[in-house]
Design a protein that fits this description.
The structure holds 2 protein chains of 2 kinds. Chain A has 17 helices and 13 strands. By secondary structure, chain A is of the alpha/beta class. Chain A has 2 domains: 185 residues; 210 residues, Rossmann fold. Chain A has a 6-stranded mixed beta sheet with strand order 9-10-11-7-12-13, sandwiched between helices. In chain A, strands 4-8-5-6 form a 4-stranded mixed beta sheet. A two-stranded antiparallel sheet of chain A has the order 1-2. Among the domains of chain B are: 155 residues, no CATH class; 203 residues, Rossmann fold (3-Layer(aba) Sandwich), CATH 3.40.50.300. In chain B, 51% of the residues lie in helices and 13% in strands. In chain B, strand 11, helix 18 and strand 12 form a beta-alpha-beta unit. The longest helix of chain B is centred in the first third of the chain and has 28 residues. The chains are: A alpha/beta, B alpha/beta. The interface between A and B is large, with 78 and 68 residues.
């Protein structure tokens, strides 16, 4: 039935990857900690604009990092093409959505009777052929504007694989599969019951055999009365049996084509999400850049005007960008005043890395960084910071989960970690954990109030350790600027006290 | 095995006179087999042996399995006879082949049962042919497997010889050759159908191509995997051919007259092909294989089973690493650990008293002892690393029962009635298991009842295992063996399921829990002293 050749077919969109499909099943399971710690929710909302299927899609694709500079540049080119021709991309997306929605609306998707499965599969294929014609039309009219390797190859594929001759052949199959007289052959199986049914091609014209049977033909005919429901059911049963293998094959065919549209919708959906986000961010007056993936063993991280795009999406006022030249840093310790933007800068770093490796633009004037296996976060929430019995165990177990997911090339962002115990114990555990991570090759950014930890590390001054400080403006007012500076002995709780309490 | 199989085979004299369950001349014990023919014995539920029997019988609920499970052997050599078979079955290769044999014989059975129910000749004859095909394959394979194995058991060695002679016989060779030829001829029959809503034309098949493959080829450019997707198609089918299918088959037979007349002649020649000895062998094998299948997951989880040393009667009771088999079957799948315990009743010792913390495994240990006593007498391997058991008489249990009356007097009466029945049945070598007996009365009463009853029992030469919270029972005299639960010193509330041979101390758990919370006598004294001192230092006390 399926023949010896089972090679994978060439009909793949390949918009987001040069050599593979966007298979949502293969992506990392969404990490809810990462989403809440980095504030990805705001980003996803801007990408999806309330479309549930887009929302589901972007929260799978965005945090799944591309692993090479080439892969990133391939996708960046596709995204840039999409930003240049937003209407065409939205139109293509609509075709894919319509094909999938159309399939869903064809009655009988859960039927398992073989004849109904065959009928439905043929009808679905007929529907898909219409969507192919729509793709052909768009490609013929619009492909000239696209220059990225992804889109160029896609339009070439549409033109060459979905040509008129092929569409006619496919139409013919749909027509023959929906005819009512079956021509099958079989052999005898267990209990001398018919088995191994094979459906044969419907002849072009049936020469009115109904009602005009010769003697020999009559002797070899089993005929039942139309009103004999029982016997009619038996014939229906036999028909189902006879078409079952073909029904399976045609159903599989329909699934392949559905698979094509599913991948196409996902890939275009991601691009539509990028379009949406780009429109919203630039409409707010912010700049974005195409980030630069940096190859090599030495850790690289350099950005100018880096800001938290999530903050940009939710704040009307000015959002301050920061310049961070952290090339070569294995451990970046951020200290300084409360409310001084430490968490914001940590989020901007994480989001920059995530968006770089999603092949997206980054919220900065310039951004260049090494590639990371993943971004892991351990943010202590306010309610966890209290020194309470059991909290440390809980925190340590969460930190253990981070270590569990770590590889030597991970980026780990720690925010106020180990504040559920006293400073001394916290410092000791932090020293052990952070040093072990950095020595393993992991890059660690650590926002901390643990002065003992920060100052000890500063005194020891091992290579690759850098210190940032949330800078305090004059008169106690927050400047929201981060500068490279050693830790100070006091935090700025009194500032807040002065502002809020006094 | 099914009745159909026996009915077909009855015409021939058995070529295998050997049994693998009983020595030549031995018969099932009339006492226990009569018991087994009816309901399960009274101790089965108390010892959870009914669960084991049900698991052995499996989904097919084979009645003979239960009968054999409750059928005790009286002669130690009859037990050894079965141990020998188990020893041969330690070979995984042989076990696998014998399992396959039993499965194939079941298929034979099913095919024949099916054939018996069908009126239409070409269909019925085909089922008979398939049954014969499975049978020939099964017999040849099992004969080869037994021939290749080095057999140490009297049972399997006798069967192996008988099977070899049978397979070499001319009748068997003819059956095999004709069956294969017939199947080959039928496999060559093909035909073509034109089906519309109410009419089917049957024609010769002239080799047209598969249209589904054409469709797949057209859409191959969309193929997403190298393996075919599972076909999501259900075809509703009645169990047997309906009249339309029969009509088609009749016309197919007309297209191929030579093949179908040969099939008819075959059916007459080989109407009864099963050797009754082969059927019995398959049947008896299920006893061994079901047991091995039952204990396999437990062995895989690290639990040990051993061949018990059995004696005619008396000789005490000895077990190492003993555990409750029914409990282990329930716990092992979820990864829970099973704790084995050592038991020793020797010489004049007749009474074993088990005490210890609640939920600490006392009843499970008592059950394990009762199970051991029974399992040893049916010739199977038993839980633990070593065991020595007398098989003189059955195990008796005196457990509180759910079906006992609700009111206390009624309950006590029912219990005493059962005790009376047990006393009447006791013989030297009997084992009695009492579990928290007489709980419906006062402790003082219960103690007196226990003492009286135990005295009666041991006088009759029975061994008693008593689970009780009455520690006094364990201290009655020097010949009483006392097993008591071991406490986890770090967390006395957690059961260890371990028991040690030492005097009972029913309050141990309560004291240990108190210590952990600093509420032991010494701890409370100490805290009061330090608290006072601290208060003075802290300047609270005026």
């Amino acid at each position: 039935m399926t023949g010896p050749m089972r090679a994978i077919g060439p009909m793949r969109p390949r918009l987001l990857f040069a050599a593979r499909d966007l298979e949502l099943d293969g992506l990392l399971a969404p990490d809810s900690t990462l989403v809440s710690d980095l504030g990805l929710e705001r980003l996803y909302a801007a990408m999806a604009r309330g479309d549930r299927s887009l929302d589901e899609l972007v929260r799978r694709v965005v945090p799944s990092p591309l692993g090479s500079a080439d892969a990133i540049r391939y996708r960046q080119a596709t995204v840039a093409d999409a930003i240049a021709s937003p209407e065409v991309v939205r139109e293509l997306y609509a075709v894919a959505v319509e094909a999938i929605e159309g399939e869903r609306k064809v009655w009988g998707g859960s039927m398992r009777n073989a004849e109904l499965v065959l009928d439905r599969a043929a009808e679905v294929i007929g529907l898909f052929l219409e969507s192919f014609r729509a793709l052909r039309r768009i490609g013929a009219a619009q492909s000239g504007a696209f220059t990225s390797p992804g889109f160029v190859a896609f339009f070439e594929l549409v033109a060459s694989q979905l040509d008129d001759a092929w569409l006619a052949e496919a139409d013919d199959h749909v027509h023959r599969l929906r005819t009512r007289t079956l021509h099958v052959s079989a052999r005898l199986g267990t209990g001398n019951r018919g088995t191994g049914y094979v459906l044969h091609r419907q002849p072009n014209a049936i020469q009115g055999w109904r009602g005009r049977l010769g003697l020999e033909e009559r002797r070899s005919t089993v005929e039942v009365l139309l009103r004999d429901q029982n016997a009619m059911n038996m014939i229906a049963e036999l028909r189902a049996l006879a078409v079952a293998p073909t029904a399976g094959a045609v159903h599989e065919t329909a699934q392949w084509v559905l698979g094509f549209f599913t991948v196409l919708r996902a890939e275009l959906g991601f691009l539509v999400g990028c379009l949406n986000l780009h429109e919203t961010i630039t409409a707010a007056g912010a700049t974005v850049c195409w980030p630069e993936p940096v190859a090599g063993d030495e850790p690289a991280f350099a950005a100018t005007g880096l800001y938290d795009p999530g903050l940009r999406l939710t704040t009307d006022g000015p959002v301050v960008g920061n310049d961070l030249a952290m090339d070569g840093a294995r451990i970046v310790v951020i200290t300084g005043a409360n409310g001084g933007g430490k968490s914001t800068i940590l989020r901007a770093v994480g989001l920059g890395q995530v968006m770089l490796q999603a092949g997206m633009f980054v919220a900065a004037d310039r951004f260049a960084a090494s590639l990371r296996a993943n971004v892991l976060t351990h943010f202590t929430r306010e309610e966890d910071a209290a020194m309470e019995r059991g909290k440390l165990q809980e925190e340590l177990s969460r930190l253990g989960q981070v270590i569990e997911a770590c590889s030597p090339s991970s980026l780990v962002l720690l925010n106020e970690s180990l504040s559920s115990t006293n400073e001394r114990d916290g410092a000791e555990i932090a020293r052990q954990v952070v040093t072990a991570l950095a020595d393993s090759g992991v890059q660690v950014w650590f926002v901390t109030h643990n002065h003992e930890f920060a100052s000890d590390l500063h005194r020891a001054a091992p290579a690759g350790v850098r210190f940032l400080r949330a800078e305090r403006g004059g008169g106690g007012e927050r400047s929201f600027h981060i500068v490279e500076a050693p830790p100070l002995a006091t935090s700025h709780g009194m500032d807040l006290y002065a502002r809020i309490v006094s | 095995m099914d009745g159909a199989l026996r009915a077909v085979g009855i015409a021939l004299p058995p070529s295998l006179p050997a049994s693998i369950l009983f020595r030549p001349g031995d018969l099932p014990d009339p006492e226990t087999s009569a018991e087994a023919a009816g309901s399960t014995p009274p101790f089965a539920a108390d010892l959870h042996l009914d669960e084991i029997a049900a698991a052995l019988a499996g989904e097919r609920r084979e009645p003979l399995v239960a009968a054999r499970f409750y059928g005790r052997l009286r002669d130690p050599d009859a037990v050894t006879f079965r141990h020998e078979v188990f020893r041969d079955l330690r070979s995984a290769a042989l076990r696998e082949k014998l399992t396959a044999f039993v499965a194939r014989m079941r298929v034979v059975d099913e095919h024949l049962a099916h054939a018996a129910a069908i009126a239409h000749p070409p269909e019925r004859q085909r089922w008979q042919l398939e049954a014969a095909d499975s049978y020939v394959a099964a017999v040849v394979a099992v004969t080869d497997a037994l021939g290749a194995a080095s057999l140490g058991s009297r049972g399997l060695a006798a069967v192996a010889g008988g099977l070899r002679a049978y397979v070499d016989s001319k009748a068997f060779a003819t059956l095999g050759a004709e069956t294969a030829r017939m199947l080959g001829d039928l496999a060559g029959v093909t035909y073509r159908l034109r089906i519309d809503e109410s009419r089917i034309v049957v024609e010769r098949h002239d080799g047209e191509a598969d249209y589904g493959a054409e469709v797949l080829a057209t859409f191959a450019r969309f193929r997403r995997s190298e393996t075919p997707a599972p076909v999501p198609v259900d075809v509703f089918r009645t169990v047997d051919m309906n009249v339309v299918e029969v009509g088609v088959l009749e016309r197919v037979a007309r297209l191929h007259p030579a093949v179908f007349s040969a099939l008819e002649a075959y059916g007459v020649r080989h109407a009864a092909f099963i050797d009754p000895g082969v059927a019995t062998f398959a049947d008896e094998l299920t006893f061994y294989l079901a047991w091995l299948e039952l204990i396999a997951p437990l062995e895989a989880a690290g639990l040990s089973f051993c061949e018990p040393e059995v004696s005619k009667s008396g000789g005490g009771l000895h077990a190492r690493g003993l555990f409750d088999l029914a409990l282990a079957r329930r716990r092992v799948p979820s990864g829970e650990a099973i704790v084995g315990n050592d038991i020793e009743l020797s010489g004049t010792e007749r009474l074993l008293v088990i005490t210890g913390p609640n939920q600490g495994g006392k009843t499970a240990l008592a059950r394990a002892i009762g199970q051991l006593h029974h399992l040893a007498a049916i010739g199977v391997t038993v839980p633990g690393t070593a065991a020595r058991v007398g098989i003189g008489d059955a195990v008796h249990t005196l457990f509180a029962r759910a079906e006992d009356p609700g009111d206390l007097t009624g309950r006590l009466e029912a219990e005493l009635t059962r005790a009376r029945t047990i006393l009447d049945a006791l013989r030297p070598g009997s084992l009695v298991i009492m579990n928290e007996s007489f709980a419906s009365t006062t402790a003082e009463d219960a103690l007196a009842l226990d003492r009286a009853l135990i005295g009666e029992m041991t006088t009759r030469g029975a061994m008693c295992v008593v689970v009780t919270f009455l520690g006094e029972l364990a201290a009655d005299d020097a010949s009483v063996v006392s097993l008591t639960g071991v406490l986890d010193p770090l967390d006395p509330t957690r059961p260890t399921y371990r028991f040690e041979r030492r005097p009972a101390d029913p309050l141990a758990q309560a004291r240990a829990v108190a210590d952990v919370h600093g509420l032991g006598y010494d701890a409370v004294r100490d805290r009061i002293a330090r608290g006072a001192a601290g208060a003075v230092r802290g300047g609270v006390t005026p």
